[in-house]
């Protein structure tokens, strides 16, 4: 870094945006067809029930609101004979212990990949993507508070959510002897497996992931990174905080009112040109978001600092404002729903891969209801439970995406 903090500041201004690569979908396969890709861990000599049938029931039951392995079995046993046949069963159905023993032996990362790919293929754009459309994936972790291992430690999962579709693209189990930082690269691998390529994708993450290695990993895959900066990176935080923000014009401002409060979010973005640039690898812009809240006549104000690897011409202030807000979809539209609608923190699944498997099923259920137009997931699950035949028809149908 030069002795002078800033040699030049370039305020973000509109530039010409190149047209993004079009993303096309293949055929929309039925759920039973897709689930045949999941390897069966059982000895072939003792198989009585197809794995695809067991998994299809688990997926449908959670879509209908089942919040535990026992509830999944109950939902299956409540189905009539024709519904069971359509899900791949013959004369009999497995007992609850059989279902449970099989599901907890599956590979959760592979199951997530298969189900995420299936949901991706079922998602179609109702309108053409905007000219400046960019796929934005939010990364965040969640502890399953009720799922404790034998030594008392809790299971922690790191997820990647497509903020446009609301689908969980990938999910990995965080090593109990480590933390989310070491799981970031495996999560990128899982996302790339589902999408095929990460070129042009923007990843957003909280301050924990403001890591040099993360930035290098993302850029090496031709993707981009938008991260918040806090005290865990003191040099970078000090640099961003000391920029002459008062001299920088406002790039974007939004105002919202609701829940008894008024909130104004003011965003400023600049390109810092010094011999050393921003003190974070591949960072192209420094961003400050000032949040002003008025609640019951009292005003509070806080500032958040971020960096992004996209240059000003590809990340305008209004884009940055949207991406930063959408990052919290992973908390509000995924983790909160799993806790409230599916009572995840009360569920005490802890054997084998059970915690990760049931979390994957919940992610799939939420994603399915999102892409089918539901805005209230709890209501959607109740409706699916009342109309089990309609649900089975919808998930098992197969048809091309093109008309």
UniProtKB/TrEMBL annotation:
NCBIfam families according to UniProt: transpos_ISAs1 (NF033564)
Limits of the Transposase IS4-like domain: 134-365
Transmembrane stretches, start-end: 51-72
Record's protein name: ISAs1 family transposase
Keywords in alphabetical order: Membrane, Transmembrane, Transmembrane helix
InterPro entries: ISAs1_transpos, Transposase_11, Transposase_11-like, YbfD_N
Domain H repeat-associated protein N-terminal: 33-119
């Amino acid at each position: 870094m030069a002795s002078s903090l800033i040699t030049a500041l370039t305020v973000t201004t509109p530039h010409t945006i190149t047209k993004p690569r079009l993303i096309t979908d293949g055929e929309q396969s039925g759920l039973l067809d897709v689930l045949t890709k999941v390897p069966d861990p059982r000895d072939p000599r003792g198989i009585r029930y197809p794995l695809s049938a067991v998994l299809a029931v688990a997926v449908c039951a959670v879509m209908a609101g089942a919040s535990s392995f026992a509830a999944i079995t109950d939902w299956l046993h409540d189905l009539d004979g024709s519904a069971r046949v359509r899900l791949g069963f013959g004369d009999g159905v497995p007992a609850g212990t059989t279902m449970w023993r099989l599901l907890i032996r599956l590979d959760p990362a592979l199951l997530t990949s298969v189900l995420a790919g299936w949901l991706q293929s079922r998602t179609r754009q109702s309108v053409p993507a905007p000219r400046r459309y960019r796929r934005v994936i939010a990364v965040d972790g969640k502890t399953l508070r009720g799922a404790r291992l034998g030594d008392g430690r809790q299971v922690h999962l790191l997820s990647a959510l497509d903020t446009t579709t609301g689908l969980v693209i990938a999910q990995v189990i965080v090593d109990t002897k480590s933390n989310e930082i070491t799981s970031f690269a495996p999560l990128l691998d899982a996302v790339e497996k589902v999408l095929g390529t990460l070129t042009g994708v923007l990843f957003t993450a909280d301050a924990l992931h403001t890591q040099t290695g993360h930035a290098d990993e993302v850029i090496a895959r031709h993707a981009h990174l938008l991260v918040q900066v806090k005290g865990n990176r003191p040099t970078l935080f000090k640099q961003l905080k000391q920029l002459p923000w008062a001299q920088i014009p406002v790039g974007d401002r939004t105002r919202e009112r609701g829940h008894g409060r008024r909130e104004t979010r003011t965003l400023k973005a600049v390109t810092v040109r010094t011999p050393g640039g921003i003190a974070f690898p591949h960072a192209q812009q420094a961003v400050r978001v000032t949040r002003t809240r008025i609640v019951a006549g009292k005003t509070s104000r806080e500032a958040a600092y971020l960096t992004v690897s996209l240059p000003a011409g590809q990340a305008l202030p209004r884009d940055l404002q949207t991406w930063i807000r959408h990052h919290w979809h992973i908390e509000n539209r995924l983790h909160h729903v799993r806790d409230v609608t599916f009572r995840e923190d009360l569920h005490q699944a802890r054997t084998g891969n059970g915690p990760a498997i049931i979390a994957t099923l919940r992610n799939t259920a939420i994603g399915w209801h999102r892409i089918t137009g539901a805005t209230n997931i709890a209501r959607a699950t109740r409706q699916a439970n009342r109309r089990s035949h309609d649900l089975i028809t919808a998930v098992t149908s197969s048809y091309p995406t093109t008309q």
